Amino acid sequence: MDNRIDQRFSELANDGRCALITYVTAGDPGPDITTAIMHSLVDAGADVIELGIPFSDPMADGPIIQRASERALAEGMSLRGVLKIVRRFREENMTIPIVLMGYLNPIEAMGYERFAEQAAVAGADGVLIVDVPPEEAKIVNSQLVAHGLEQIFLIAPNSSKSRIDGVCEFASGFVYYVSVKGVTGSKSVDALEVNQHIAEFRQQLSLPIGIGFGIKSPESAAAVACSGDAIIVGSAIIEIMERHADDFTTMRREVESFVAQLRGALDGARAA
Amino acid sequence: MSATPNTRDIEAPDPVNLPDLAGHFGIYGGKFVAETLMGPLAELERVYSAAMRDPEFLAEFEQDLAHYVGRPSPLYHARRLSRELGGAQIYLKREDLNHTGAHKVNNTIGQALIARRMGKGRVIAETGAGQHGVATATVAARFGMRCVVYMGAEDIQRQSPNVYRMKLLGAEVVPVESGSRTLKDALNEAMRDWVSNVDDTFYIIGTVAGPHPYPVMVRDFQCVIGREARRQSLEQIGRLPDVLVACVGGGSNAIGLFHPFLNDVEVKIIGVEAGGDGIETGRHSAPLSAGRPGVLHGNRTYLMQDEDGQIKPTHSISAGLDYPGVGPEHAWLKDTGRAQYVAVNDDAALAAFHQLALCEGIIPALESSHAMAYVNELAPRMAVDQVIIVNLSGRGDKDIQMVASRSGISL
Question: Of A30, B19, B110, B357, whose CB neighbour count within 10 A is largest?
């Protein structure tokens, strides 16, 4: 069977739609809520779920995802706990692709092989390790590939042609274009610049390109929906969850409404 | 069997020629950062290796070390302390006499010269004890660069004189409230600033950790310590020392002393980590003594981490050693056995602080006091004609409030 990520991207390409990838940190604010929120994301129109593996030192993340990580760790979340969340989600949903996103150290602590095996068994489809560039990817990549997991890589506005070649050597599924120089949830994306960069990267990359870091609203999502194959939104969702931390029903409703707006914006932009 | 990297997979190369081109010391080191920083790191590597081959750059660096820092720093025979301990002769490499009061300035001058070559008008730094922050603010003032220093909120409390020094030098000091509010969190925050402002900003890392080329660049700038000590030892004593001792937090003063001696196999090398309340309590900052390999802050090295790979909170009386990782070259030196690493507790470091003040009229930094504490143990077990060189990496003026409060005195 094809990897769910590839399947989903090819279906969306056939329909002329832009994928909506939504990020939440596993275990924030608690493991049960994460599973429920994942279903909410899907119900509201997400095509792929990126599930953050909390880490004590999330260097590439801004304050919003840092706080989510801290809350999850305070609740006792661990990489094993993250995989348990994936398993629980899969009990009810066998179609939506799940990409695990995190930093290398928790994965290294578990052992690459054990992690790859258990992530695949749990039902994950891809892994994005933020602090693993292609130069350091060889060993971990061989384990992921051996277990049918796709490794997602970041590309940035300042990635040279030779760096993109390096990414192509190991990347599968899609590549994640970091649309702003900065951390997650920082400044807003400059659509004109992004669209231009993506056009250049297309000449070298055959994989679908997702655009993330700095997409905060349906408007900013719509502005880049035509050049990207996917839009990735994380911090904006976590911010909503934070705002309604004391009321789970409202939290879920507000997240669903926001994700539905993103969905509408993407489909609207593509139709226009 | 896990496929996680293992030292056994790597052939042992000549320790002096490390790291390899990708920044690896065996399995350690490397470049574990998000893609956005890979381009800037490659550019830094280019500029840095060109500078190290440029006689003009090297001459300017040397000139600054001589006339701005005040090098060479003396190699001082601590006769009274040696006599009191009744064993080996103890020589102090007096990095405390450098401008700004510690070894840190050797590196910040080098990196500021690189920053200027790259046309960067803004420098940022992380700091624990504040010594690296002060050394960065100092060179930024001298070169007319804007300077932002990230410092853990807890460290700001315990090192307030240095905070004010940085401000006097025109730097902005940003308190870091995330995580454990110490050095590692300041490093995270500096990295975030760098990735966001990479076009006009140079990140002056203060220790031999971080992504390649930082560990090798900082080492190269700090090696002046060991080169001088080696020459001074031959001139003053007529031979090489038997043992080198230095404290290890990130490990820049230690690698600066050790590296020029790596091929002198008869010279024993000992790094002293911060044992905090005691290794057995878990409240310490001694990853080489009690941690295991992992990846943090851009490099693979020994880390204090839990079962799940989360970085553990650290503790040391000395803010400059209060860090859960260590430079990758030290990890390599430990695994290969070329250097040994031990840990010294807060109390022993404090006792050594007082002892050096009373016995030699030198108030050492609490960081350096860890090295002195180990020397206190080691020297009596050695013969009187043997020689220990210990790196007195900084002076202790910044620590007097902390020491006073531990003695129940308020200044």
Answer: B110
